[in-house]
């Protein structure tokens, strides 16, 4: 099942990122990036931060095949869509970051290197164990609906919906949280202010009570995954504590 639905877009979308900061949000200190300036970014979800972030980040680095984040020094590498758009590196974190209390591992590659997975049927291996949720930081060209295949240790496979909203200056179509917003849209030859790019926090349920050993991504070039984290089942936590 693959859908990339067309809809009308406004020509401009003014960013409201400054209104999203405030007390109680998780703040992560970012590296200096290509611009040489230190950057700060916030948990944009609006939920109170837990004392300790949760989740087991899964490295997507072996599967990175697309450039979705650029600085103004390397605009031409952007490839989120056929127009070569990309997020501004000044407004997205690198490495470990926390969104809505979930710990994620984003790319740390230099500008121009691949930093996300354009879904082409990749198999993402996981540490075999029981999990309740798969969380992703993702973006889509237009809004996209597809399926992932969850592979379990007993050989069973479950198919679950993956629904990601448009990255281009759009409201959430599937109830996601806005994880990060780049108030400037990058094009191959210029940076366009006041046209926002959205990175979404979405989740996929794991309903089978079996160890998950891997996730087969869809074959859908409109879907881009920047980070993936597994949320362990509480029953696993009870086993590890001896309860």
Question: What do you see in this structure?
Answer:
This protein is mainly beta and 243 residues long. It has one domain. Helix content is 3%, strand content 44%. It contains one helix and 17 strands. The strands form five sheets. Strands 4, 9, 11, 14, 15 and 17 form a six-stranded antiparallel β-sheet that branches. Strands 1, 10, 12, 13 and 16 form a five-stranded antiparallel β-sheet that branches. A two-stranded antiparallel ribbon has the order 2-3. Strand 12 and strand 13 form a beta hairpin. The radius of gyration is 18 Å and the shape is globular. The N and C termini lie far apart (42 Å). The N terminus is likely disordered.
Instruction: Indicate the mean pLDDT.
Output: 81
Q: What is the straight-line distance between the termini? A: 42 Å
Strand content: 35-45%
Query: What count of structural domains?
Result: 1
What's the order of the H and E elements?
EEEEEEEEEEEEEEEEEH
DSSP summary, beta strand count = 17
SSE class = mainly beta
Cα shape: globular
* Low-confidence runs: 1-42
Biggest β-sheet description:
6 strands, antiparallel
Question: How many DSSP H or I helices?
Answer: 1
Radius of gyration: 18 Å
Q: Please bin the fraction of helical residues.
A: under 10%
């Amino acid at each position: 099942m693959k859908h990339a639905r067309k809809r009308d877009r406004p020509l401009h979308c003014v960013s409201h990122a400054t209104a999203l900061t405030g007390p109680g949000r998780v703040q992560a200190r970012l590296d200096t990036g290509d611009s040489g300036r230190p950057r700060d970014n916030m948990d944009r979800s609006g939920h109170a931060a837990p004392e300790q972030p949760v989740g087991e980040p899964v490295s997507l680095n072996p599967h990175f095949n697309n450039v979705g984040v650029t600085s103004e020094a390397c605009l031409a590498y952007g490839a989120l869509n056929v127009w070569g758009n990309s997020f501004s590196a000044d407004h997205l974190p690198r490495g470990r970051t926390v969104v809505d209390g979930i710990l994620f591992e984003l790319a740390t590659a230099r500008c121009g290197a691949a930093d996300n997975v354009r879904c082409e049927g990749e198999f993402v291996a996981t540490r075999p164990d029981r999990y309740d949720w798969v969380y992703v930081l993702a973006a889509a060209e237009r809004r996209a609906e597809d399926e992932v295949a969850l592979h379990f240790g007993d050989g069973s496979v479950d198919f679950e919906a993956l629904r990601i909203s448009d990255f281009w200056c759009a409201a959430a179509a599937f109830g996601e949280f806005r994880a990060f917003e780049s108030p400037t849209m990058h094009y191959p030859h210029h940076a366009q202010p006041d046209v926002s790019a959205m990175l979404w926090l979405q989740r996929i349920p794991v309903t089978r009570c079996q160890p998950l050993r891997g996730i087969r991504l869809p074959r859908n070039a409109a879907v881009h995954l920047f980070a993936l984290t597994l949320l362990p089942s509480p029953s696993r936590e009870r086993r590890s504590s001896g309860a």
